[in-house]
Amino acid sequence: MNFKSILTTILVVALALGLGVGAGYLVRNSGLIGGGGGGAQVTQGDYSAVYANAKASGGEVVMYSLSTCPFCVKAKALLEKQNVRFVERVIDKDQAARKEADGLKINSVPVIYIGDKSMQGFDEAKLVELLNAHAKAGKPAA
After folding, report:
1. Does 118 share its domain with 76?
2. 21 and 59 share one domain
3. Considering Cα of 52, then 58, then 60, then 64, what sign does the dihedral take?
4. What are the Glutaredoxin domain coordinates in residue numbering (predicted)?
5. Which of 1, 13, 68, 77 has the fewest CB atoms found within 10 Å of its own CB?
């Protein structure tokens, strides 16, 4: 290879990388893929609109889940077994739920909000403990 062909190869690779990074930025910030673009976003730690929606639906528990997540299924089964009224926000089936999850910086599921507490992932003992603590605080989740 001569110097000209090496330089040409470097320029082509640099251009391709630049276009790829630029395209990724545009897609993320255009709203085509969650996390950007118009629409009201829920900010980290502020899920008051979601919480208000949950209370209006008769519960104080909100669970963000995926329809294909086995741990979400287990968490949902436990909440139902405990007779807890909850709102499930399935982020792969509901665009509004996806925007809420993006605003809350949720990057794995399940995420369960119980009053002013939350837990990420499924841990049966921890979930029962949070539900009991919430009930003892005089705010029954069920």
Report:
1. yes
2. no
3. negative
4. 61-117
5. 1
pLDDT tens column, 4-36 = 778 777 866 666 555 555 544 444 444 333 333
- CA-CA distances (angstroms) from residue 5 to 2, 8, 10, 14, 23? 6, 5, 9, 14, 27
Residue 32 has a pLDDT of: 37
| Sign, CA torsion 85/112/35/93 | negative
Q: In the sheet where 111-114 sits, what is the strand order?
A: 86-90, 61-65, 111-114, 117-120
Average pLDDT over residues 116-122: 91
Specify whether 27 is located in the same domain as 53: no
Q: How many domains does the chain have?
A: 2
Buried b (16+ CB within 10 A) or exposed e, 16-53: eeeeeeeeeeeeeeeeeeebbeeeeebeeeebeebbeb
Which 8-state DSSP code applies to residue 47? -
d(CA 133, CA 127): 10
